[in-house]
Amino acid sequence: MPLGEERRRSSAADGRPLASRSSTSAVLSRRTSPGRSDCDRVYRTTVRNQRMVARIAPAGTEHSMVARRLICLLAVAVLAVAGCGDNGGTSAGSADRPSGTATGSPLEFTATTVDGAPFDGRSLVGKPAVLWFWAPWCPVCLQQAPGVREAAEQHGDQVAIVGIAGLDEAAAMPEFIRLAKVGSITNLSDESGEVWKRFGITSQSTFVLIDAAGTVTFRGRLDADEVPDRVAELLG
Known about the structure:
Helix content: 40-55%
CATH superfamily of the domain at 85-233: Glutaredoxin
Low-confidence stretches: 3-37, 78-88, 92-103
């Protein structure tokens, strides 16, 4: 390009060609405004990679566990950078509607339990609910389990506590339930990630607290000793 033409296309402010600035703006726009299909594609890729690992190395082996963790950590990083949800602790106001959810109750979803039984999220309407998003290979989730068990023992008759397993194959989920000793609560198998995406979850070991009116009051990570007190707060 002739020097004069390049100068005419350059900005007096920063010296960059207009075309370059337009391209940069387009890239930034794509980065800050991810589509639902982009988030779905990352999640589907993660699950597909997990299945590939399962074919190469049987579930439960050391190589399989390491590979699964690396795959999911990469997926979580990509989802977070893409803006597909927020897994930092948020309280009432900023968390009143799950990310990516259409208008209506956040509990309008259907799923299947790890045992294979159908589950309707609307069965939770009218009472406080705690959704615990975990992954079978997650050590932090295992550390949270005692707090979940204690909360279920103390408030299980007044608050619905539901585990939602994802980021792995359904076949790997029962073993975690056995090790964590959380068979007393309902645990959903969300291998496809539909419920995770509905609530804007990008990382395992995340809790979503919903009050009796159906409003999400908290979304984020909790330590085991925090879980019973946060569940009690739902009862006022």
